[in-house]
Amino acid sequence: MRLIDQPYILTKEQIHFYHENKFIKLKNVFDEETLAYYGQLIKDKVKELNTQHIPIEERDTYSKAFLQIFNLWRESEDVKEFIFGKRLAGIATQLMGTEGVRMYHDQALFKEPGGGFTPWHADQYYWPLANDNTITAWIPLQAVPLEMGPLEFSAKSHTLQDGRNLKISDDSEQVIGQKLRLGDFEKVVKPFDLGEVSFHSGWVFHRAGANTTDQMRAVMTVIYMDKNMKLNAPENDNQQLDWDTWCPGAKIGEVIDTEINPVIFDA
């Protein structure tokens, strides 16, 4: 069995930590060989599909933060092997305590040398989903020192309602950052070792620093949702766009069982 499909069994303490904080970092999810092989496939595909050619200094804050390419699993059968791996999906299922998970979408997030910070935000602002049984795997394809802009979490911030209505922007950085300071939420930012992967829920606030190195920060992400997730009526224009793009044909109040939202793991 390939490593990408081998089980990664979590402890009760790890699952408890996730439920308390709504994020967790796990070491040794992948080995160097696996990341080198699939990482190169992902990097090649991102390079092929990237259409962002505006110089960094001419972009807005959002565009400075990263290059992003969506649903690579539909562009390459080899990359699909990695994204549909049972190891990641099994971890997501254990952390959420669901009967399994299905695909919402994947997303390559490459922060270029000199790339700017990613503002504070909560992912679920963008998602027309009926509940928060969602989780994102953040998979660095190399070690990520602080200078490269690793993901930063605000522990337990899923309990904060203020700021949930803000998209990623300068405003979200300022407003959410202030709310988190006032609420005395712990900020957790540490380097990622090679093979370390983080998982975070849809409503936990997070950000990332700038990439001040001369190397690309290559990260692959996979967004999972409960296999029984139902579509919610969109609450903003971005959720309407996500419905049209990532859940095409799904109906409000029904399980999101479309061609591009397959079940990846059954518990």
UniProtKB/TrEMBL annotation:
Keywords: Dioxygenase, Oxidoreductase. SUPFAM superfamilies: Clavaminate synthase-like (SSF51197). It holds the Pfam family PhyH. It comes from Jiulongibacter sediminis. One of its GO terms (molecular function) is iron ion binding. Its cofactor is Fe(2+). InterPro entries: Phytyl_CoA_dOase-like. This is Phytanoyl-CoA dioxygenase.
